[in-house]
Amino acid sequence: MRGKCWIIIVGLVLVASVAMAASVKVITQQAVIRKDKRFFAPVVATVPYGGVMQALAREGDWLRVGYRGNQGWIHVSAVDEQKLELSSLMKSKATETSKDEVALAGKGFTPEVEKAFRAKNPQMKYDLVDKIEAYHVSMEEVQMFVRDGWLKEPGGAS
């Protein structure tokens, strides 16, 4: 009988901990889950804009998250915590967000926002922006740059 009680208690604790885990949503064009709480730590997984992860723990400005079977650390600047709005529970009208605000929050442009921006700013050299966006540096190249340049993590960590 005692064994069954412990199994039930452990089960309830596990269910409660899963239910209490917060969700976080990626607000950058792409977020990186890292092995450690360091900006140059090896990448565990990448998550696209709008991707939702489970927040498992928080240490300073870093969140331990779970995403599609992967676990690691992500900086809080790349995510927004999902909050339950009481207004939606009360069936009252919640304020809506414009597409422009969502694009800015995501630190990227939607095609509609880019078209409007181009119309207002025809002098911009958009071909150069496209070149910069197309430029890709692999994580191996970043790690080599950090190592060869004897760079340190922000805050003095190595």
Structure report:
This protein has helices at residues 2-20, 86-89, 99-105, 111-120, 126-134, 139-148; strands spanning 22-26, 30-34, 43-48, 52-59, 62-67, 70-75, 79-81. With 158 residues, the protein is an alpha+beta fold. The strands form 2 sheets. Strands 6-5-4-1-7 form a 5-stranded antiparallel sheet, with no helix packed on it. Strands 2-3 form a two-stranded antiparallel ribbon.
Structural class: alpha+beta
What gross morphology would you assign?
A: flat
Sheet having the most strands: 5 strands, antiparallel
Helix content: 25-40%
Overall residue-averaged pLDDT value: 76
Taking all Cα atoms into account, the compactness measure Rg is 21 Å
Q: Return residue spans where pLDDT drops below 50 for at least 5 consecutive residues.
A: 15-20, 84-94
**Count of individual helical segments:** 6
**Helix-strand pattern, N to C?**
HEEEEEEEHHHHH
The count of β-strands is: 7
- Widest sheet: strand order? 6-5-4-1-7
- CA distance, first residue to last residue: 52 Å
How much strand content do the residues show? Answer: 15-25%
